[in-house]
């Protein structure tokens, strides 16, 4: 989890336009507690989802742990958001304008005025949680696949070397050209997804699955781990073959065969751009 401090700097700058302190020496206490609360939140969420729903009739240890982590995360997120809101108010009062500087995500949210303060807090907190915990896991997974497949690693290196110029800064257009890198990410999601199961919104109508009638209103979970490794959807499913995801590979897969980021309005905001 040593990648978390690095990502905290990046995501903190993106959301709040400031460093959050995990790279300080010594690290700040609150960001470390935020990371621990995020880990607890994900752990207890999975325990509550997969275990008997005793928490509906009594306060189980898992439910108490979930509530404690949730309360801390919301309060911490609220603090970050309020600090940024105060900065924006002070800037507006002084009529300070920074035309050449791209604002943070929070600044964009406040400027657009489409979300209530409570919604902004939840959005920013969810994004911060996801980036701090899930993004390092993704990078760790990719590095593991590179180490196990030196031939693919060499292809990636050759592509990067052909696209990037050592004397110039990296641009978004150059990253889009890195097709092998994108395909490696897609394949790693299929073999080792962020979540074992992904919760789908409750059914809007009755549905028959495998001969069983599932009534409307039922919350459904999709097992990403099994689907991503299923020969029913992917040939040689457990083999790391990122080239199968190249746009010109001529292969077509059902768009719903694997949905690591979900689908629809509640799709994960961290999904890679196309």
From TrEMBL:
SUPFAM superfamilies: Cytochrome P450 (SSF48264). The keyword Metal-binding applies. Heme binds at residue 268. InterPro entries: CYP11_CYP27_families, Cyt_P450, Cyt_P450_CS, Cyt_P450_E_grp-I, Cyt_P450_sf. Its cofactor is heme. It comes from the Eukaryota. The keyword Transport does not apply. Belongs to the cytochrome P450 family. This is Cytochrome P450. GO terms for molecular function: heme binding; iron ion binding; monooxygenase activity; oxidoreductase activity, acting on paired donors, with incorporation or reduction of molecular oxygen. Keywords: Heme, Iron, Metal-binding, Monooxygenase, Oxidoreductase.
């Amino acid at each position: 989890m040593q990648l978390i401090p690095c990502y905290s700097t990046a995501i903190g700058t993106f959301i709040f336009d400031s460093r959050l302190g995990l790279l300080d020496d010594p690290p700040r206490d609150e960001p470390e507690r935020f990371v621990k609360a995020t880990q607890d939140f994900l752990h207890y969420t999975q325990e509550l989802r997969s275990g008997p729903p005793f928490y509906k009739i009594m306060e189980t240890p898992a439910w108490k742990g979930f509530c404690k982590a949730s309360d801390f995360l919301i309060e911490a997120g609220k603090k970050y958001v309020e600090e940024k809101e105060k900065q924006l108010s002070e800037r507006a009062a002084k009529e300070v304008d920074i035309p050449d500087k791209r604002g943070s995500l929070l600044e964009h949210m406040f400027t657009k005025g489409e979300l209530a303060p409570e919604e902004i807090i939840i959005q920013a907190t969810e994004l911060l949680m996801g980036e701090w915990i899930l993004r390092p896991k993704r990078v760790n997974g990719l590095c593991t696949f590179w180490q196990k497949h030196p031939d693919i690693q060499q292809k990636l290196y050759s592509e990067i070397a052909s696209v990037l110029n050592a004397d110039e800064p990296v641009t978004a257009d150059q990253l889009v050209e890195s097709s092998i890198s994108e395909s490696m990410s897609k394949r790693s999601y299929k073999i080792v997804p962020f979540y074992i199961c992904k919760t789908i919104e409750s059914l809007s109508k009755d549905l028959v699955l495998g001969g069983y009638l599932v009534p409307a209103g039922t919350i459904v979970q999709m097992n990403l781990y099994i689907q991503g490794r299923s020969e029913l959807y992917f040939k040689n499913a457990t083999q790391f073959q990122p080239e199968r995801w190249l746009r010109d590979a001529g292969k077509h897969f059902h768009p719903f065969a694997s949905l690591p980021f979900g689908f629809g309005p509640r799709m994960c905001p961290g999904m890679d751009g196309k």
